[in-house]
Recover the amino acids of this structure.
């Protein structure tokens, strides 16, 4: 969420004066504290105080105030469902003064705008304007909030009209707030809004004093941005330093992030790298101080983290890597380690966002690299806008290799290969060779100097969609050279080897789904209800029945086309969905494993959530193999595994696999042989990592696309046979199994053997 909207809300909140008097004193104190935390971007503290205030609220007016403020807080945190409910409670109570109700309705309108419910948003804005009456400040705030609903070509004229009407606002602070917001909004209009942006921000700056340090810093920072955009770096630096001076001795972390980041950019433009590095470091320290309060949202599989915070970390890492290119010996190594540590913060934050909170990820201060043996090397690619940086490491040694491939070119190539792999295209090797040239070839001579047997890769962004085994040098695939493993981050997970013990297997399979169809997410139920195709096919040959085809019906004769939501749970529709979810290939896979492994088997009607729970609570299994649909989306909430009667989500697995039974001897390996990641969403593969981290499973073996029904029993049997051999690591066992398929003409195409990725501990 941009600074422009936050300033609108800030100005609204400043004019919300808590009711006074008598029994409401404690309520008023808490409401004021919550309001202050909200203005400063301390959302969790705001929630705490406002919730306490609501608990103390007695009159309907106080209850409405607390619910309204809580609704605004949840909206700023991008908790749209919670915000919607609380704002409706506040509005529907019919209490509170007109201006407060107008603000709540306007916030609800903004919420509906973010959900693309534009007609409802317009109606709500109209209702808010009626309540605002003749109050010019409230009316200006509402009109500013409405701008996203206007055609882009109309926004400048609307802003100028709002600016003309500011003369009716008597309160100086309120007037400065509106000027500030107009300036910030005009700034987003590019060259057309430049003059309006400058004059509005400059007038706001002149009107504000040191008594309003946040607003003054915002005005100065906005002006500094205008000068930076015009490449007038010295003037921008002067204004930016004035903005930082306004916040001196104040812990306004949310504002200082942007100011220090701009300071770092300006120093870099002015060729003062030491000062730039110091500013980047301070910006990151401010981020880490309030990381849990910074709202993250997801749009089309993309996290807003990449737009709002990742550039700060990457800018710092970029400069460190550039400096390392000119440094020598110990200084160079120190810079490379510092750059890697910075990017690790990105990976940790991404995983926190995926799992839904900072407490969900516990970092490991000792990285995998320093714990590993001489036969293991780490490949740590860092994708920058203008180049790809490869950090290859072994022991205490780290080397940097730079490829001048732009990020968009790398992304396009990786996505092209991911698509061809999923569809078993015949022209895979040419694209796989290009990625090999970018990712592996630069370090070939360095790799040959070391006794490397296992290569651990920490993929960045779109590279998560590619199984490294398929990278091709023109003669061999990478899996023919090394055992391979994936790490979500060097500081995530546990690197120490597990203590030797007898291996006990739990094998769970579902070929015939039961009541689980009644518990699927609504969007998935609707899609499956309309699906008329199933699996991945090549000509008339069904390669995998494990694919959850998500395309909608393509003919008007499909009886389920157009099914309304109320009919999705009807017996006929549920039977249709069960047919779509059948996994006939699982039968042979489970039979093969049952004959090979010392195991407990639960299958179909016995693979229920309660039986699965019972097995894990009563027995300490070292390997859990699940042959059932596993769905990995862009968030933890869209990631789950299907039992016959219900879904098993990440939180269920966390609860089961962190029980006392597994504290001393955690699950060493969780295998998901029928899982699939959301196509094209480079966050989806994080589900395999997130699942392992959340449940404290040491390793997860999963697939990036649905596994071939014919290949599954062969590769699974070969993998576990190798794993049972003394001295064979999980990565080596997987390599041997993949090579055994690659050697067979029938299964030599990467579609059959390449989808596997081993995530986490490889030993």
């Amino acid at each position: 969420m941009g600074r422009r909207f936050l300033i609108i809300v800030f100005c609204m909140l400043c004019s919300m004066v808590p009711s006074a008097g008598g029994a409401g004193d404690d309520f008023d104190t808490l409401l004021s504290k919550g309001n202050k935390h909200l203005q400063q971007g301390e959302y969790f503290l705001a929630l705490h105080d406002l919730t306490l205030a609501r608990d103390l609220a007695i009159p309907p007016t106080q209850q409405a105030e607390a619910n309204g403020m809580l609704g605004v807080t949840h909206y700023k945190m991008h908790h749209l469902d919670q915000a919607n409910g609380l704002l409706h409670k506040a509005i529907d109570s019919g209490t509170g003064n007109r201006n407060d109700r107008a603000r709540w309705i306007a916030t609800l309108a903004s919420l509906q705008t973010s959900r693309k419910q534009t007609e409802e948003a317009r109606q709500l804005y109209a209702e808010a304007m009626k309540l605002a009456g003749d109050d010019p400040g409230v009316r200006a705030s509402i009109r500013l909030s409405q701008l996203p609903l206007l055609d882009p070509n109309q926004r400048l004229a609307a802003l100028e009209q709002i600016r003309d009407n500011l003369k009716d606002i008597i309160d100086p602070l309120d007037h400065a707030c509106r000027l500030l917001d107009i300036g910030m909004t005009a700034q987003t209009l590019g060259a057309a809004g430049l003059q309006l942006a400058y004059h509005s921000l400059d007038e706001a700056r002149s009107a504000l004093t040191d008594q309003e340090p946040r607003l003054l810093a915002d005005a100065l920072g906005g002006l500094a941005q205008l000068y930076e955009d015009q490449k007038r770096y010295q003037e921008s630096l002067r204004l930016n330093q004035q903005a930082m001076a306004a916040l001196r001795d104040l812990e306004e972390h949310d504002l200082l992030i942007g100011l220090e980041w701009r300071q770092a950019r300006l120093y870099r433009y002015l060729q003062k790298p030491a000062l730039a590095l110091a500013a980047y470091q301070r910006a990151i320290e401010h981020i880490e101080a309030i990381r849990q309060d910074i709202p993250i949202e997801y749009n089309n599989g993309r996290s807003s983290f990449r737009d709002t915070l990742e550039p700060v970390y990457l800018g710092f890492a970029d400069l460190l890597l550039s400096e390392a290119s000119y440094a020598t010996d110990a200084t160079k190594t120190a810079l490379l380690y510092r750059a890697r540590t910075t990017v690790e913060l990105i990976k940790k934050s991404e995983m926190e966002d995926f799992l839904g909170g900072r407490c969900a990820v516990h970092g490991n201060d000792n990285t995998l690299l320093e714990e590993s043996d001489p036969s293991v090397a780490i490949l740590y690619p860092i994708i920058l806008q203008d180049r790809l940086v490869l950090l290859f490491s072994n022991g205490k040694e780290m080397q940097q290799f730079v490829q001048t491939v732009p990020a968009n070119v790398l992304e396009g190539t990786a996505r092209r290969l991911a698509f061809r792999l999923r569809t078993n295209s015949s022209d895979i090797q040419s694209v796989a060779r290009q990625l090999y040239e970018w990712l592996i070839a630069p370090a070939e001579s360095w790799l040959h100097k070391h006794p490397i047997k296992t290569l651990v890769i920490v993929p960045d962004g779109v590279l998560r969609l590619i199984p490294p085994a398929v990278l091709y040098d023109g003669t061999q695939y990478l899996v023919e050279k090394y055992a391979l493993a994936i790490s979500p981050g060097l500081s995530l997970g546990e690197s120490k080897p597990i203590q030797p013990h007898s291996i006990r297997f739990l094998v769970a399979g579902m070929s015939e789904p039961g009541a689980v169809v009644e518990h699927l997410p609504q969007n998935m139920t609707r899609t499956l209800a309309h699906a008329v195709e199933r699996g991945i096919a090549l000509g008339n040959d069904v390669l995998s029945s494990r694919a959850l085809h998500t395309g909608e019906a393509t003919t008007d004769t499909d009886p389920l086309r157009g099914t309304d939501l109320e009919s999705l749970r009807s017996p006929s529709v549920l039977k249709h969905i069960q047919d779509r979810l059948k996994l006939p290939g699982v039968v042979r896979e489970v039979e093969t494993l049952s004959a090979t492994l010392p195991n407990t088997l639960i299958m179909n009607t016995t693979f229920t959530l309660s039986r699965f729970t019972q097995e894990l609570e009563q027995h300490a299994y070292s390997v859990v193999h699940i042959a059932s649909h596993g769905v990995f989306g862009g968030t933890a909430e869209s990631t789950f595994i299907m039992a016959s009667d219900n879904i098993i989500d990440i939180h269920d697995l966390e609860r089961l696999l962190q029980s006392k039974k597994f504290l001393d001897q955690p699950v060493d390996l969780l295998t998901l042989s029928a899982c699939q990641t959301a196509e094209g969403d480079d966050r989806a593969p994080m589900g395999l990592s997130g699942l392992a981290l959340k449940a404290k499973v040491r390793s997860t073996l999963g697939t990036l696309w649905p596994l071939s029904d014919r290949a599954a029993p062969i590769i699974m049997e070969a993998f576990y046979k190798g794993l049972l051999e003394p001295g064979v690591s999980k990565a080596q066992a997987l390599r041997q199994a993949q090579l055994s398929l690659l050697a067979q003409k029938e299964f030599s195409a990467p579609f059959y053997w390449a989808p596997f990725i081993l995530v986490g501990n490889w030993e």
About this structure: The domain at 3-249 is CATH 1.25.40.10 (Serine Threonine Protein Phosphatase 5, Tetratricopeptide repeat). Residues 329-355 form the longest helix (27 residues). The chain has a mean pLDDT of 85.
